[in-house]
Amino acid sequence: MKTAVTRFATVSAATVALGLVPLAGTSYAASCSGAGCDNQGPRATACETADVATQRTITNNGRKAELRWSFGCQAAWVRVTDDSSNSIYNSFGYIEKYDSAGKLLRSLNVEIPHGGSDWSNMLGGSSYYYRVCVKFQGNEYPMTCSTKF
Hints:
Layout: H1 2-20, E1 52-60, E2 63-70, E3 75-82, E4 91-98, E5 104-112, E6 116-119, E7 123-124, E8 129-136, E9 144-145
Antiparallel strand pairs: 1-2, 2-3, 3-6, 3-7, 4-5, 4-8, 8-9
């Protein structure tokens, strides 16, 4: 009897321990939704893996801004990549949130120093419109913005 109880306890402990180890490729539930994602990071909230699509892409002299939308989180952010041949200037990406009347409600930005890529925090809610813009230091090229999504 004692052997059966010991075996059961060992198997139960192993089962619990294995259940705590995440498997490769396991996705985690996002920790925010809609406007609750405002000013939170897409990676920190797991929104960057929650059914994400690029809704708009714009370029400005080798700098690219993408409007990324998480269907799982109902939130958007801008991802900026600087692939220019002359990365002496910092690049800036903006995401803007508008209401149905076209009023700008909030804007967030991200700065990329001298090449590379990065993304902004998010703005959320499915009843809003979003657009992204990209520019860089210097006055040679004006800021470029996408259409609203």
